Amino acid sequence: MGRRGAAEARGTGGCSSSSPTPGGGVGGEGWLGPWPRQQGGGPIAGLHVGAGAEGVQRGVAMAEMQQLRVQEAVDSMVKSLERENIRKMQGLMFRCSASCCEDSQASMQQVHQCIERCHAPLAQAQALVTSELEKFQDRLARCTMHCNDKAKDSIDAGSKELQVKRQLESCVTKCVDDHMHLLPTMTKKMKESLLSIGK
To answer: Coiled-coil annotation: which residues (predicted)?
Structure first.
């Protein structure tokens, strides 16, 4: 096989190459949406009221605490999905791909297409999880930014800074509480969808 042929073989995702996996990997992090692994950000980052350093510091600490609550809850949900649904789909994908490679009569292109079909359900699962996490993040971000806007309006209207800070903290906490309550339903919906994809 010449250089061109070798390059084509590597590029087709055939049996001699490492099989392409949706999202750049197949374990814990590869199939996940972008939000659970964000560092230093998230839908609650940057919320604070007051020009003083103390006000900013307290606001950042409050935002980080609430962000951590959401982060831990979402991580727990994602781990549950990975254990109960994704691993089974990964096992099916690898066994399916292996069977593609056992057909000695198939052409390189046929093997490649067979492997791609095997990977399709996991790619669909990745897209589903990513989409749901992004929608959850967007909803929470809109809620917390509404809290921030109300706090700024109160400051502009002459309200006392300490009072506004407390209102902001209460508002953001309610946003987080409300969205945490959505997670069980969201998890159930995703598990049902993943089961449907995996059939």
So the answer is: none
Considering the domain boundaries, does residue 139 fall inside one? yes
| 73 CB burial (10 A radius; 0-12, 13-18, 19+) | middle
Residue 71 lies in a domain: yes
Do 44 and 176 form a contact (C-beta atoms < 8 A)? yes
Give the per-residue pLDDT at 25.
36
H helices within the chain, ranges in order?
A: 3-11, 53-81, 87-101, 108-156, 161-180, 183-198
Task: Please tell me the predicted confidence (pLDDT) of residue 110.
Answer: 95
Residue 101 near residue 61, CB atoms below 8 Å: no
Which position has the token pair 């490649």? 112
Q: Is 14 inside any structural domain?
A: no
DSSP state of 20: P
Domain that includes residue 173, residue range: 51-92+122-198
Q: What's the number of domains the chain is made of?
A: 1
> Taking all residues of the chain, what is their mean pLDDT, rounded to a whole number?
76
In a domain, 40, yes or no: no
* % of the chain with per-residue pLDDT over 90: 48
- Residue 68 pLDDT > 60: yes
What is the rounded CA–CA span in Å between residue 27 and residue 9? Answer: 25
